[in-house]
Amino acid sequence: MRLVELSVTNFRSLGDVRSIPIRKQTILTGHNDCGKTATLDAIASLLGERAVLDSDISDFAIGEPARAALPMEEEGGERRTVIIEGRFALSPAEEKEFDAGPYLRVRRRHVEAEASFLEWQASVPHDPALRNVPGLKVPELHALASELGVSLRAGQPNVKASWVEVLEEHAATGERVMAWVVAPDPVSAALPQLLYFKGDAAESPDVVVRSILTAKLREYTLREETRQKISGLEEEFSHLLKDDVVRLQKLVEERCALDAFTVDPGVQFRPTVQSLALTAAAPGQRPVPLTAAGSGRSRRVSLALWEASQELLTESYEDGIGGVIIAYDEPDTHLDYDHQRRIMQMIKVSAAAAQSTVIVATHSLNLIDGVDIQDIVHLNSRNGRAYVQSLGAKDDDEETRRFMSNMALSLGFRNSVLLHERCFVGVEGPTEYAVLPVLFKLAFGYPIQSAGIALWSCKGNDGALAFAKFLKAHKRTVMFLVDADTMRDKQKQFNIARLSKQGFTEADCLFLGDPHELEDVFTDMQWVDTMNACWPRDDTQQWTVHDVETLRSEGKFSKALHSMVRLHSSSSPDSKEDMVGKLAERLREPSDVPAALVKTFDDAIKVASKAGLAYWPDES
């Protein structure tokens, strides 16, 4: 089972948050106290890894008609209720196991001052009395059977199992509806295991090890032969308790003057690692308890354990049952930039396994920039109540701009990148700045930021070059991605004379164009396809390869192409930036990205990979 969507009602700041998208790797961002940790804790509660407490219940229901479904407790009224609901994608084996479609809805419902219930949405009998027959006590089974006119078949023993069997057979013949009912044990057992790492636990390796090994133990319980053994033990201990149960029942009946008192215990084994001891030996020294080591070494060991966990806990689950969610709450706490980059790689590897999901709550822009924007869930709040801003695959440009603006305001996006990114690549104009990230993502399958490259538009002014000099003086790697004819054309804004005034040479440049500029690298056919689709001729004729081909020998190709389109099409683009942007949008496959451009990107990746430290320095 893989969590793909989360909805939370009345849990801390999450008063009523619907449809939080959970992708293979999900980054939760936002300012302090906006609900990031509450979201992770809600997931832990859904999966049964932490109890929902009455203190978790939100107070947003007070005095709000829209929240009438969750009222405050009043005389004779309903108690406030926390609902944490998850939509899970099932593996083929799980679809067969639960006789369900590709998705399953499961929720944790906590009623104030009462208890918590794990429920699932399933096809159940229309009659509510028949929805949890195995959970009924023997007297309740007798009463229900009498009410429905159901009796045991000849030869059936008068025991609970027989009454459950005949009542369930009766239920199977009636009308069914989709409703929330108590989840059976197999559903509870198949919920993903949760490995929850908190930034403040980085100095407690024993906590990390215990979490990893306990999760692994519970994974082993999903194996068929192990489940059979555990089931056998549960039945054996239930049988051993039989006499004790009878004695308890009689004692209570006698002392309380009751006609009947029933005890029906359910025995369940859930293995856990209770204790462990950790020792470490530095080179040439004897092993000592890790608690005696410095905080720097403890943090380093914890980080190494986090990384090791991806190998232990993201393997394929036997028979496709189960899964794992690895949650990090601000893993970047007290970590420098290189440690954050290492964690980003851990997240990618962990999320790649079929049945695994990684969720990270963070302020780290290194982590945020390392994923596709669709993997980011931005939490915000008004008057203490959290709400979600996230992007789906079909969001338009206006939504994207608004989302990025909000994130920049809350996280200081631009300043942090300028201060902490390790490789800056300046481009000359708006065309390159707009389309190169799109083409890079198409060619390599991940954002340009993931390669350690901070792309920025210099706009050809001396101020930008002076700032590039400042970055270089402060040990930042700075390169320029410029048109191939830059060094030959003195009219170019980034000519060698201007660059040399700020201390840069030709060796600091990556060259783009075939033979002159970015627009040159695309084929005649790619341009013709875009022109016919986006800027059809007013005379209804089709643009042809010949139209484009003849322009390549007439001076500056991009200018001539733009002029020709404007001359013959009333829907022509306003600028070269729009023209190249439309072409980039129509490319679909990595092979569509011109080879000359891919080579330039490869050169940039090589520069970025050598910039800054690539290992973890010892912090002890």
Describe it.
- By secondary structure, this protein is an alpha/beta fold.
- It contains 21 helices and 18 strands.
- The longest helix has 19 residues.
Q: What topology does this entry show?
A:
Elements: E1 2-11, E2 14-21, E3 25-29, H1 36-46, E4 81-89, H2 92-98, E5 103-111, E6 116-125, H3 138-148, H4 160-172, E7 176-182, H5 185-190, E8 193-198, H6 205-220, H7 224-240, H8 242-256, E9 279-280, E10 288-289, H9 295-313, E11 324-329, H10 337-351, E12 356-361, H11 365-369, E13 376-382, E14 385-390, H12 397-411, H13 413-420, E15 423-427, H14 430-444, E16 454-457, H15 462-473, E17 477-483, H16 496-501, E18 509-512, H17 524-534, H18 545-549, H19 557-568, H20 576-586, H21 595-610
Parallel strand pairs: 3-12, 3-13, 8-11, 11-12, 15-16, 15-17, 17-18
Antiparallel strand pairs: 1-2, 1-4, 4-5, 5-6, 6-7, 9-10, 13-14
Helix pairs in contact: 3-4, 6-9, 9-10, 14-20
